[in-house]
Automatic annotation (TrEMBL):
<dbReference type="GO" id="GO:0016020">
    <property type="term" value="C:membrane"/>
</dbReference>
<dbReference type="Pfam" id="PF04228">
    <property type="entry name" value="Zn_peptidase"/>
</dbReference>
<feature type="transmembrane region" description="Helical">
    <location>
        <begin position="21"/>
        <end position="44"/>
    </location>
</feature>
<protein>
    <submittedName>
        <fullName>Metallopeptidase</fullName>
    </submittedName>
</protein>
<keyword id="KW-1133">Transmembrane helix</keyword>
<keyword id="KW-0812">Transmembrane</keyword>
<dbReference type="InterPro" id="IPR007343">
    <property type="entry name" value="Uncharacterised_pept_Zn_put"/>
</dbReference>
<keyword id="KW-0472">Membrane</keyword>
């Protein structure tokens, strides 16, 4: 993937360098943002108490701690990928006579303060619907290479596009509807099933973005690039992660979908380029 040929101009907030050691009570805000943080932590083998309480929080990063890293390659990469998602979803929304509000991506290291609460790099990338920001510690990319068996520029881009997909869901009111359904769910398995549908749709939305990039000479996507994204989708399936972390698979506890489901829905978006094909909510759960 020739990402350097893509135009920049994404909304990037660089908080790297704020760092610091923990020093107070950690609390993550309620709602779907806090839920996503806890689930990401759980399925990456991290104690959920790290993001839901029971550890100490770092000093709050202030604007004075924000560094400008516009010259480094990581910043340039993220900037171009975010800008490309902006163009994709602005065009999609315009086709429906809607206005797309571009999200901000926050780069951080170690710890970060979001409107959904404090988080650490151990939580992995996440989207906070309360401030419409994607949070990313790019050390996660190294984790992908070492622990998840997925890596490469297009795979990293897929991760960003997936989180932006959650922003699209927030813009469309889907995330709020899912949160209401989760609160009304009678069982934990039912509650989890709504999370699976939400995550698979975000995978499909990431595929829609990939399709739009595929159609540009600038990106120059190859079959190897596509394979990177598919391998990453497979590596972060609930069944794969559960098998690695606890030696057994418990489908009722799935929150993001199986490896096969995640690959299928990413490819559905990638092959069609049509977000209308990403309706994971009308199908029976066993047909996802």
């Amino acid at each position: 993937m020739d990402w350097k040929n893509l135009p920049g101009g994404g909304n990037i907030e660089d908080r790297r360098g704020g760092g610091g050691l923990p020093g107070g009570g950690l609390a993550v805000g309620g709602g779907i943002g806090g839920l996503i943080l806890a689930l990401i932590a759980y399925f990456f083998g991290v104690d959920p108490s790290i993001v839901t309480g029971g550890v100490q929080q770092p000093p709050v990063q202030t604007q004075s701690q924000t560094q400008t890293g516009q010259s480094d390659e990581t910043y340039q990469f993220v900037d171009r990928i975010v800008a490309s998602t902006d163009r994709t979803w602005t065009q999609v929304f315009q086709q429906s006579n809607r206005q797309y509000t571009k999200p901000t991506l926050v780069l951080f290291d170690q710890y970060v303060q979001s409107a959904c609460g404090q988080a650490s790099s151990a939580t992995g990338p996440f989207y906070c619907p309360l401030d419409s920001k994607v949070y990313l510690d790019t050390s996660f990319f190294a984790t992908m290479d070492r622990r998840l068996g997925g890596g490469g520029d297009f795979a990293y881009s897929y991760v960003i596009a997936h989180e932006v997909g959650h922003h699209v869901q927030n813009e469309l009111g889907i995330a709020e509807q899912v949160e209401r359904k989760q609160r009304a769910a009678r069982t934990e398995a039912e509650q989890n099933s709504y999370g699976v549908r939400l995550e698979l749709q975000a995978d499909c939305f990431a595929g829609v973005w990939g399709n739009s990039v595929k159609g540009t000479d600038a990106a120059n996507l190859t079959q190897d690039d596509i394979r990177e994204a598919i391998n990453t989708a497979a590596a972060i399936g609930d069944d794969t992660l559960q098998r690695q972390s606890q030696g057994q698979v418990m489908p009722d506890s799935f929150t993001h979908g199986s490896s096969q489901q995640r690959m299928n829905w990413f490819m559905k978006g990638f092959q069609t380029g049509n977000p209308n094909q990403c309706d994971t909510f009308s199908l029976p759960y066993n047909q996802l």
